[in-house]
Amino acid sequence: MANHKSSLKRIRQTSTHRLHNRYYAKTMRNAVRKLRGTTDKAEATALLPKVQKMLDKLAKNNTIHPNKAANLKSGLMVYVNKLS
Question: Please, are residues 78 and 84 in contact by the beta-carbon 8 Å criterion?
Answer without folding.
Answer: no
